[in-house]
Specification:
- The protein has 1 helix and 15 strands.
- With 171 residues, the protein is mostly beta strands.
């Protein structure tokens, strides 16, 4: 792919595909959800962006389908277009955003600086990760971040319980 170029849409691309040097790949089109099939492997290299659009809170997202390996290298980025979907900050979400003919079981991207957002109003309420599974799917995971008040309440309850056990043991 050319420097700074974008490959997106639906249909099939022949051969191995490498995204790097500020290029972007996106399954589907900008107005809806769809699948872009790659007749080979997909590599997101340093400076490359994997872009996905989430169309609803159900498991609907743009999809890339590669018949070969999926490789996400250091320096790659993930752009999540939330399409102004009202995500519930108390709910976890998982979207399949790419499939591959080879195992992606070792894929685990948790560095929050990798992820950027468009039309996503409450991204700070979640942590994000890319994971793979033995079926070859690349999963985009949203995990709620507990509110500080919740963390304090759990901590206070734990301290209270520890004090109760200590008093009971000293009797």
């Amino acid at each position: 792919m050319q420097t700074g170029g974008t490959l997106g849409g639906t249909g099939t691309v022949g051969g191995a595909t490498t995204v790097g040097n500020n290029g972007t790949i996106r399954g589907g089109d900008v107005t809806g959800v769809g699948t872009l099939t790659l007749a080979g492997s997909l590599t997101i290299g340093s400076g490359g962006t994997l872009s996905t659009k989430i169309a609803s809170t159900s498991a609907t997202a743009n999809l890339l389908a590669a018949t070969g390996a999926f490789t996400f290298n250091s320096g790659g980025r993930v752009l999540i277009d939330g399409s102004s979907v009202p995500f519930d900050p108390a709910t976890s979400y998982t979207y399949t955003i790419a499939t591959s003919g080879m195992s992606t079981a070792g894929l685990n991207v948790t560095d929050q600086s990798v992820f950027s957002f468009a039309n996503f109003s409450n991204s700070s309420a979640f942590t994000f990760s890319l994971t793979g599974n033995t079926g070859g799917a690349v999963l985009l995971n949203f995990t709620p971040v507990p509110e500080p008040a919740t963390v304090l309440a759990i901590g206070a309850a734990g301290l209270g319980l520890a004090g109760w056990f200590r008093r009971r043991r000293n009797r």
